[in-house]
Amino acid sequence: MKQDSTARQVISAVAVVASLVFVGLEIRQNTAAQRSQTRQAIADASKDQILRLAEDAQLARAWQGYLFPERFASPPALTVLDTVRVEQAILAFMRHQENVYLQYREGVFDESILDTYGFVGGAWDTPQFAVFWETSPMLAVFDSSFVRAFSEANGLR
Fold this sequence. Notes:
Helix content is 73%, strand content 0%. It is mainly α. It has one domain (39-153). It is elongated and about 95 Å long.
């Protein structure tokens, strides 16, 4: 009888350990799936922003004229509406950058995600963007740790 009791306890202990291993594997798979879904959502948002800019000729012209006037022999004259549209598009891109940064800071992704989604350079490396960044009252709506990290990474105030 004592042997039966010991055998049952051993079997129960093995079953508990096997269950814990199974749960651990399930959690690991679920975490990987969640990260994959989050990265896909970030990629989709990035793609949508880029396509919106590419498909709207007036916004694309204004974007180029606002951020990269040196690319034009004679930069296009921007209307007030052009400027507002570009600044709103910049804010949308910045919200995306903030989301990417916060995902990184929360440990969802490693630092490579910042490089992947253009945290440094590009349009953010123009004198025109620096003026926008340093004078826009809208920066108050962003996470302060993002503003500090983005400013530091891009040499902005």
